[in-house]
Amino acid sequence: MIAPRPLTVEGVADLVADRVAALRLPHPVRVAIDGPPWSGLALAPLLASALATWARTTLVVRATDYLRPASLRLERGRDDPDAFYDDWLDVVGLRREVLEPAGPDGSGRVLPALWDAERDRATRASYVELPADGVVVVDGWFLLRGELPLDLTVHVALSPVARGRRVPPADATRELPAYDRYDAQARPVEAYFRREAFGHDALCSRSARPNSAIPRRYWSQCCVLPTAISLASIPPGNTGGT
Fold first, then answer.
1. ∠ at Cα 11 (141, 187), nearest 5°?
2. Run of H or E including 54
3. CA torsion through residues 67, 45, 13, 39, sign
């Protein structure tokens, strides 16, 4: 297990940027930041800023811009947790318009937004040409179910108790059971512990032990608490997102 190292949120962004810079791929690096949007860790913009110091062109793609149309998303009602888990995110669109074009033999032409959920219509956004040394960051939830081809993943894990405190009350009925299902089926945190044994991943959490004196605004490089960031580098050649 890696020894704890206190980090600010900016420090976490720098750590992820270092991991991105260390990858030597013939195509843009595809990064996922996986976690509830209300986790309290707004990492994507900080990561883009950190990558700028490496002179890496970075495009942030948000899951909220890749939701399915309301007629499909809300077919079982707004508060159905299984619909939220299975039907809200346009996984096919993310693969087709973002991750596959940025991957091996891809065109490098990435669509930053596909669907305007507020207006419930296509965004008509323009494609962005990413250079081979560019980075695309997908910022969203339920990204580590093995459906998306990724090169580097960041998982923001919250315990069920922490989720209950942080979730917007109006969304709790829909989202809390869905995140419980994600933990049980995808098991994103446990997957990183298994990979760490083989030296593929670095792991981060808020502190080294429950009674740590490290302030809650800091994060440390040791995934031992329910509230955690897990930095996982998928070895080149394994593009299945697992």
1. 30
2. none
3. negative
Compute how many other C-beta atoms are within 10 angstroms of the C-beta atom of residue 49.
14
The pLDDT score that the predictor gives to residue 239 is: 37
Confidence band for 230, pLDDT divided at 50, 70 and 90: low
At 190, which amino acid appears? E
Asked whether residue 33 carries a pLDDT value surpassing 80, the answer given is: yes
Q: CB under 8 Å to 98, separation ≥6 — which residues?
A: 30, 61, 66, 110, 111, 136, 138
Can you tell me the distance from the alpha carbon of 85 to that of 58, in angstroms, rounded to the nearest whole number? 28
- Residue 212, φ and ψ in degrees, nearest 5: -60, 145
Tokens 């894990």, located at residue: 157
What token pair was written down for 201? 């991943």
pTM of the predicted model, to two decimals?
Answer: 0.81
More confident residue, 161 or 48: 48
* Domain range 6-228, its CATH number among 3.40.50.300, 3.30.1360.200, 3.30.450.20, 2.60.120.580: 3.40.50.300
